[in-house]
Specification:
Layout lengths: L2 H7 L21 H6 L36 E7 L4 E8 L7 E6 L10 H10 L4 E6 L8 E2 L8 H15 L9 E6 L1 H15 L4 E7 L3 H7 L3 H5 L5 E2 L2 H10 L6 H7 L4 E3 L16 E3 L10 H4 L3 H6 L4 E6 L7 H8 L4 E4 L9 H4 L1 H15 L10 E2 L4
Parallel strand pairs: 3-4, 3-6, 6-7, 7-11, 11-12
Antiparallel strand pairs: 1-2, 1-13, 2-4, 2-5, 8-10, 9-10
Length: 386
């Protein structure tokens, strides 16, 4: 870390502990999915029902991997006004004036979903740009001292802005930021950008990963049917990882081994509601998608028009070109945003997990075209510090 960042973030930041793949740290192929497409839910394609899968012995090829090899630091950022203690994964820029790419995951996922991408960005950018990912409320290792049930878009946007303001207290001295959001997280970044700009934060650009308003809104009425085929739990972390790979939800086994342990918890964990349907499993979802249903209608409406209205550079990355809605098709023809299509047999809804190298190249090019400002960071607390 440069002296500039060292003075801003200070000794309270600790190195990322070597998090072992333990229990503590740790939808989708139906006919309906064929009709609506993998992107349409904004949350991925529906899985093969658990009953259709044959029990398999625990496979060492699906053992969890620590995030320590992908981020340089794990941090806890307290947001008292939001009653949240947010888990943040961070790799700072190596040089004075380096900017930061901020990554917001989609519904049901966690900051570790960006682990492989973060490592690729650091390599391609040679440390000149930092990477910051985090767990949203009711996701991953973020906890709350009050009820955190509300996942409406306004609450998520307020959380996101509060996190940026807590990490970078002085907007004038903050690094240039690029906001990157996957699915639901893309909607949060689009809405948060003008708010942060009003507070004088410098936003080089906003990148939205594999979500389009039109297709996402169309499929929301079908989500309950899709989720009926989603397993309620797993007997081991390895089984959860293997299920995500076998169903094609994540095509990159290495990424799955890093990201999946953050999205499931032991069956007796108080972090997520206990239901009778998961009583037979040793592990359950940290964020059951069915529990987020009351908030789906708030996530995607107006996303396309808000995206096109941003006063920053705009990038849309899709897994398939057919997923553009009418508003975005017109905007694309008018040259209002940069469109990248990562089509291919090995790329699905989780584009950042499936092909992190290619996406890192795209984001690097996007950054280089739009970042021009020299800035700095602020003080946060390292994981494990008293």
């Amino acid at each position: 870390m440069s002296s500039l960042y060292r003075s801003a973030i200070s000794a309270r930041i600790a190195k990322l502990p070597q998090l072992p793949p333990t229990d503590e740290d740790n939808v989708e192929q139906s006919e309906l999915a064929d009709e609506i497409g993998a992107l349409s839910t904004g949350m991925g394609p529906p899985p093969v029902p658990r009953s259709a899968r044959k029990p398999t012995p625990q496979n060492p090829q699906f053992q969890p991997l620590s995030s320590a090899a992908y981020f340089s630091q794990a941090l806890q950022v307290a947001l008292p006004t939001r009653a949240l203690d947010v888990r943040v994964y961070y790799t700072p820029p190596k040089y004075d004036g380096g900017g930061v790419i901020v990554l917001h995951h989609g519904a049901g996922y966690a900051g570790t979903s960006f682990a492989c991408l973060a490592k690729e960005i650091s390599g391609i950018m040679k440390g000149g740009v930092g990477v910051l990912a985090f767990d949203a409320r009711r996701h991953g290792k973020t906890t709350s001292s009050q009820s955190d049930e509300n996942l409406s878009i306004d609450v998520l946007v307020e959380d996101f802005c509060a996190l940026i303001q807590a990490i970078y207290l002085d907007a004038a001295a903050a690094p240039t930021l690029m906001l990157v959001g996957h699915s639901m997280g893309g909607s949060v970044c689009v809405r948060a950008c003008p708010i942060l700009q009003q507070h004088k934060y410098k936003i080089a650009g906003v990148a939205v990963l594999d979500v389009v308003e039109g297709t996402a809104v169309e499929v929301l009425p079908h989500m309950q049917t899709i989720l009926n085929s989603r397993p309620e739990g797993f007997d081991s972390i390895e089984e959860a990882i293997e299920w995500h790979v076998d169903t094609g939800l994540i095509h990159n086994p290495t990424s799955a081994r890093v990201s999946i342990p953050s999205i499931i918890v032991p069956a007796d964990s108080p972090l997520t509601p206990t239901t009778r349907t998961n009583s037979g499993f040793k592990y359950k979802w940290r964020t059951p998608l069915r529990s987020t249903a009351p908030y789906w209608d708030s996530w995607f409406p107006s996303l396309s028009s808000l995206f096109l209205a941003l006063r920053s550079a705009r990038l849309l990355v899709l897994a398939g070109a057919e997923r553009l809605d009418t508003t975005l098709m017109v905007g694309q023809m008018q040259g209002k945003f940069w469109l990248e299509v990562m089509a291919g047999s090995g790329v699905g809804h989780l584009v950042h997990e499936d092909d992190p190298t290619r996406l890192a190249e795209i984001l690097s090019d996007f950054w280089k075209r739009n970042e021009r400002v020299v800035v700095r960071g602020n003080v946060i607390k390292g994981v494990g510090e008293v």
